[in-house]
Amino acid sequence: MSVLQKAKQHYHSTMSGEMKSIKVEEWDETVYFKPNANFAQQGKILELHNKGKIAEALVETLMQRALTAEGKRMFNFGDKDTLLREVDPEIIVRIVSIINGTEKEVEDALGN
Predict the structure, then answer these.
(1) pLDDT of residue 16
(2) How many other C-beta atoms are found inside a 10 Å radius of the C-beta of residue 72?
(3) Which domain holds residue 38?
(4) Is residue 6 part of a domain?
(5) φ and ψ at residue 32, rounded to 5 degrees
(6) Which of 16, 48, 83, 99 has the most CB within a 10 Å radius?
(7) Per the domain annotation, does 66 fall within a domain?
(8) Is the pTM of this model over 0.85?
(9) What is the CATH number of the domain that holds 44?
(10) In this predicted model, what pLDDT tens digit does every residue of 24-66 receive, in sequence order?
(11) What are the CA-CA distances from residue 11 to residues 8, 36, 66, 89, 107 (Å)?
(12) What is the enclosing helix (H) or strand (E) of 22?
């Protein structure tokens, strides 16, 4: 087996693992997510972040990674404006920080 095949096999084993979840009390909803994301998913997020569009990067992360219990995307890309303008940003930050495994760093940055 080539190194590339081994790398792919490893990646697929991590992506097919059990979904994690976050209970969002304010929404009376549970958000599911897979522990890893691929570069295709992260590309747009990194591009927005590098342009200083942090709020858009957070919303993009939520749209890319938030799943239903059945593993389907919770939000579609038509929801972006609504998420940016009509949803509590602190909740989005909290969800995305948990998804990204950076909850403590985000809380520290926000002074919480």
Answers:
(1) 67
(2) 8
(3) 19-110
(4) no
(5) -105, 155
(6) 99
(7) yes
(8) no
(9) 3.30.2220.20
(10) 999 999 999 988 888 888 899 999 999 999 999 999 999 999 9
(11) 5, 9, 20, 32, 30
(12) strand 20-24
